[in-house]
């Protein structure tokens, strides 16, 4: 291979790459006028061409982005191959072509939207992000906002272009809905640290998530969707600025907010936010002491996407179910209450209980153990769990989510308290054997808390 180091001094490879991606994105204009099979064939042809670019050329260095092509840089950049971007788009087109022979379908407007987000949205954001050149890839708040804005607009326009020319019976409201979901999903995948090239995972992630919501056939009206997006993004930015969430958590909260406000209600999201606010506050409680004994949250208690989704997936599923199955609204609301109460109770039990002077005990044997041990409980922690659950039950009543204070307090507290102790039980057994991580335990426990509250509602609603 010829020495390409002389080009490094004169070219910003990353920015050249992003300009190539943006130009490549204009291929979307052809989508309505050719078959998906022709698009697939063209995509495969491009892959073949990219594989056979001469290795000594500057274009090869830009397209394939091998770190060995940066000999003068002490820190090699993360691989972000244009080839992988085309591979990902080819996979989406292949899925669409295969499903064309079945009773299922993968709408071309969804593939187009994912393509637009991955080229125009991601590439524009990367172009304005000055931290990417020859350094470890780092997203900034500015680049995230650019990605979201450009991604939503270009996804909506490209999808609308297809349904207009192909006369597809899809409303523009649905197009806007999946465009917002896709842009947030793409930004989230872009923000998550991974050894997998984001140029590969972002189009696939966007395409799959957008397809899933398009298949529901249910969408949130554009005005309501716009409000949910702006409100949840603003709160996520505030959490990031306050130092209680990183970029991935910011985007996770935005995605949750859009869906929960859209399918549920404004106060549904506020209730879930109370969990994050209380968790953030009590994570800082006696933080130096918890740090001194090795049980403090890492990075000063800043939450990441793992913490957000492990504690909120149950609530998200219930909010979506509420929008789709309004006939079961009361049951779903109380199950939602149990999920949020469990997340809150468990977090407060962990953050407050570990500061108790008395040694905690393993929930399965009640033998004394060290603070922070999986499955450890304490009197202080159990009290904190009850108080956190009561707080959620009270807020649900004050927010007008339920109209019976006693029922809200009883079911919310019971679901949260039992869910918290299920978390401890799983921690002492399954997690101890390394079958589940802490995030996995939280995920299971919140669903358990939702189930407990749902069952209690069925048993008790006739009494009240």
Q: Label the overall shape.
A: globular
Helical content band? 55-70%
Q: How far is it from the N-terminal to the C-terminal residue, by CA?
A: 79 Å
Q: Mean pLDDT score, rounded?
A: 85
| Count of spatially separate domains | 2
Cα-atom Rg, whole angstroms?
25 Å
- What about the largest sheet? 2 strands, antiparallel
Strand content: under 5%
Derived from helix and strand composition plus strand pairing, the structural class reads mainly alpha
Order of helices and strands: HHHHHHHHHHHHHHHEEHHH
How many helices does DSSP assign?
A: 18
**Low-confidence segments:** 1-11, 69-78, 131-136
Family: Belongs to the TMEM19 family.
Transmembrane segments: 20-50, 83-102, 108-128, 140-164, 170-189, 201-219, 225-240, 375-399, 405-428, 440-460
Protein name: TIGR00297 family protein
Subcellular location: Membrane
């Amino acid at each position: 291979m010829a020495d390409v180091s002389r080009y490094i001094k004169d070219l910003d490879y990353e920015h050249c790459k992003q300009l190539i991606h943006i130009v490549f994105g204009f291929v979307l204009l052809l989508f309505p006028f050719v078959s998906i099979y022709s698009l697939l064939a063209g995509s495969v042809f491009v892959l073949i061409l990219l594989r056979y670019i001469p290795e000594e050329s500057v274009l090869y260095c830009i397209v394939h982005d091998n770190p060995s092509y940066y000999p003068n840089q002490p820190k090699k950049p993360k691989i972000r191959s244009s080839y992988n971007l085309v591979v990902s788009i080819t996979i989406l087109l292949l899925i669409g072509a295969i499903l064309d022979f079945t009773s299922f379908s993968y709408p071309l407007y969804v593939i187009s939207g994912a393509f637009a987000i991955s080229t125009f949205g991601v590439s524009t954001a990367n172009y304005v992000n000055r931290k990417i050149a020859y350094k470890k890839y780092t997203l900034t708040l500015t680049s995230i906002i650019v990605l979201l804005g450009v991604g939503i607009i270009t996804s909506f326009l490209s999808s609308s272009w297809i349904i207009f020319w192909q006369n597809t019976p899809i409303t523009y409201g649905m197009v806007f809905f999946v465009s917002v979901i896709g842009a947030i999903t793409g930004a989230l995948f872009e923000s998550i640290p991974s050894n997998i090239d984001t140029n590969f995972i972002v189009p696939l992630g966007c395409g799959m998530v957008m397809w899933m919501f398009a298949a529901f056939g249910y969408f949130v009206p554009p005005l309501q969707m716009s409000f949910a997006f702006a409100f949840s993004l603003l709160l996520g930015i505030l959490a990031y600025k306050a130092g209680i969430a990183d970029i991935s958590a910011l985007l996770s909260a935005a995605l949750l907010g859009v869906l929960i406000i859209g399918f549920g209600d404004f106060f549904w999201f506020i209730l879930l936010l109370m969990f994050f606010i209380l968790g953030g506050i009590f994570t800082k409680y006696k933080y130096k002491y918890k740090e001194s004994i090795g049980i403090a949250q890492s990075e000063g208690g800043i939450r990441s996407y793992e913490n957000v989704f492990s504690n909120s997936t149950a609530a998200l599923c219930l909010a979506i179910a509420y929008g789709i199955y309004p006939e079961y609204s009361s049951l779903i609301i109380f199950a939602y209450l149990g999920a949020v109460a469990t997340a809150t109770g468990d977090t407060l039990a962990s953050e407050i209980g570990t500061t108790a002077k008395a040694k905690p005990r393993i929930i399965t044997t009640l033998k004394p153990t060290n603070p922070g041990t999986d499955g450890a409980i304490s009197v202080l922690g159990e009290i904190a769990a009850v108080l956190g659950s009561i707080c959620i039950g009270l807020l649900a009543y004050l927010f007008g989510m339920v109209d019976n204070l006693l029922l809200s307090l009883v079911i919310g507290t019971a679901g949260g308290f039992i869910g918290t102790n299920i978390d401890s039980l799983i921690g002492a057994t399954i997690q101890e054997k390394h079958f589940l991580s802490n995030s996995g335990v939280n995920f299971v426990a919140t669903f358990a808390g939702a189930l407990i509250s749902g069952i209690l509602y069925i048993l008790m609603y006739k009494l009240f």
